[in-house]
Amino acid sequence: MIKWLVVAGFLLAVCADAGEKRVSGREEGGGSVAVGVRPVEALLLPRKLDAPARVVGLKDARLGPEVAGTVSEILVEVGDRVTSGAPLVRLDGWEYRAALAQLDAALAEARIRRDLAGRQLERMRQLRSQGQGTAEQLDSREAESQALGAGVKRLEAEREQTALRLDKCQLKAPFSGVVVEKSGMPGQWAAPGTPLLRLVDDGAVEVSADLDREQAASLSRIRKGTLQVGGQSHPLTLRSLLGLEREGRRTREARFTLDASPKPAPGVTGRLFWESAAATLPSYLLVKRDNRLGLFLLEGDIARFHPIQGAVEGQPVPFDDSLAGRRVITDGREGLSDGQSVSTVP
Q1: Contact present, 197 and 178 (Cβ < 8 Å)
Q2: How many C-beta atoms lie closer than 10 Å to residue 304's C-beta?
Q3: SS3 for 232-263, per residue?
């Protein structure tokens, strides 16, 4: 019985000693923990970033008449594609037609009176050259002729203005596009500027995205990205990055041109993707020690924990110059502690 107790005690002592050696990071015989190591430069990945984005129209106008009148006819429906200059809406415009007729009659009379005064002025000049008539009579004829001529010019300008108003009773498309809204109807009284239609040029579009400071800084160097919409990719080029941040949001708006057709329609939302010039390391390398995320680097035959400022679990690890030329422990890092002795394996 005593023999068995001695043997059991010896076995317990051996197991305890082996456990202590495993915890301290050394195997029996004084060997180090085997780990896999790779140079940082061999692990660098392009930093992939993304942000929500939307397609915005460069030509999106709510159209209304420039003159007041009753809507007599709307010539288009929602969904119709129109070309620049095409008639869209007609107003009644009877008051402008009546005013134009009155002006035509007044202008004809004024021209007759002006022409008569001109002939009378010419005869008075001839008489004056023959020593007949007075200087006062000549001055009177000249003044009358000039006044009637000015009256004709005034009526001509008034007629031109009235004709222009009559022409504006027909609302025309300012650019080619698609009618997307119709808010007017025949018989409606429309004051100047009353919106009757909405016209959008679906071919003139850009992509807009709000970016935080880090995203804006990275994109300003790359200037290329991709818009993902409904499983389709649209290549983009950065056109402008606003210098001012949106108040209260600390974001800057970026505007992109679409490099290829077909282009998504205005109002479509998607996601912007791009790769930053700043490289990163894979997220699986991160370990947590003392509530800090970092990497284990190899220094000689010692594992050193290197905290990474700004690291987020599950996200790529930001690369900084302090990691250049270092070796990262890629395998066997989970149970390591700072300062532990290690040996490398292929």
Answers
A1: no
A2: 17
A3: EEEEEEEEEECCCCCCCCCCEEEEEEECCCCC
Nearest to 207 by CA among 276, 275, 274, 266: 266
Contacts of 164 (CB under 8 A, 6+ apart): none
How is the beta sheet containing 81-82 ordered, strand by strand?
A: 60-63, 197-200, 177-182, 81-82
Beta bridge partners of 328: 38, 297
Nearest to 339 by CA among 306, 307, 289, 305: 305
pLDDT tens per residue across span 215-252:
887 787 778 899 999 889 999 999 999 888 877 778 89
C-alpha to C-alpha distance for 151 and 114, rounded to whole angstroms: 9
> What's the burial of 202, exposed, middle or buried (CB within 10 Å: 0-12/13-18/19+)?
buried
Distance of CA 243 to the CA centre of its chain: 14
What's the pLDDT band for 31 if we cut at 50, 70, 90?
Answer: low
Cα-only R_g, the chain: 43
Least Cα distance to 182 among 200, 162, 161, 164 occurs for 200
Model-wide pTM > 0.70? no
75, two tokens: 């010539």
Tens of pLDDT, residues 53-89: 999 999 999 999 999 999 999 999 999 999 999 999 9
CA distance 110 to 240: 59
C-beta separation of 236 from 259 below 8 A: yes
**Is residue 325 within 8 Å of residue 43, measured between CB atoms?**
no
